[in-house]
Amino acid sequence: MAAHEASAAKRARTAQRGPQAPRFIVIEGPLRVGKTTLARVLAEKLHARRIYDCEDNPFLADFYAEKPGSAFHAQMYFLLERQKRLREALAVEAPGPILSDYLMEKDRIFANLNLNDEELKLYERYYTALTADIPSPDLVIYLQAKPEVLRARIAKKASRDESQISPEYIEEVARAYEHFFFRYAASDLLVINTSEIDFVERSEDLQQLLRRLQEPVKGTQYFLPLGAE
């Protein structure tokens, strides 16, 4: 009888705790969709440690210039650097959440787009060995936008290397992200279409999102600020 009462009390205490805030958050989406801006703001608001994606890949310029072999070199560099950054950050025990600018699985999205069959076979062997024990995040925030919106943003803000990206490739990347996240179930997922909203120029869009993130996300849910059309 005492054991039964103790078990019931334990269940009651567990029920009263309610959902826990996510400890490992990832922001993901294609180029110029707004990841960096949102990651910076959320890291400040949540007092989170931030994991930055790799931006100094020495093979990227050759890849944009479509030099032979450069896709494999660039992809392997990204794979090695991204898994290293995640491992180092997750190994540190510190208070507060962790916020990453990228999902590890994004690496495979681009590998499948850019590598030939033989390169992809070798890449997959390294990917499996290097990422098998990296945990899934608690929450993924997926930012999406129409290809034409992404093209306009790239044209407006692109670096010299990014300006070489073809419109066809931008559409391929956007479709690949859509396909991946349509099937994604490893974490709770909040999908935000940024085609009609602007976290930088319109403060109300950002404030609505911050209020939304104070509520739990379960499964796959969608968010659209009231001001968006």
Can you give a write-up of this model?
The protein is α/β, with parallel strands linked by helices and 229 residues long. The protein has a single domain (21-223), classed as 3-Layer(aba) Sandwich (Rossmann fold), CATH 3.40.50.300. It is 51% helix and 12% strand. The chain contains nine helices and six strands. It has helices at residues 2-17, 35-46, 60-64, 70-91, 106-114, 117-131, 147-157, 167-182, 203-212, and strands spanning 24-28, 49-51, 98-100, 139-144, 188-193, 220-223. A six-stranded parallel sheet has the order 2-3-1-4-5-6, with helices on both faces. It is globular.
CATH topology: Rossmann fold
Number of helices: 9
CATH homologous superfamily assignment: P-loop containing nucleotide triphosphate hydrolases
The helix content is: 40-55%
Distance between the termini: 60 Å
Please mark out the parts with pLDDT under 50 across 5 or more consecutive residues, or reply none.
Answer: 1-18
Largest sheet: 6 strands, parallel
Beta-strand residue percentage: 5-15%
Which structural class fits the helix and strand makeup? Answer: alpha/beta
What is the 3D shape?
globular
Give, in spatial order, the strands making up the sheet with the most strands. 2-3-1-4-5-6
Q: What's the number of structural domains?
A: 1
Q: Mean pLDDT, nearest integer?
A: 85
The whole-angstrom Rg is 20 Å
Order of helical and strand elements: HEHEHHEHHEHHEHE
Per CATH, the class reads: Alpha Beta
Number of strands: 6
Examine the secondary-structure arrangement and name the CATH architecture. Answer: 3-Layer(aba) Sandwich
Oligomer, anyone? single chain
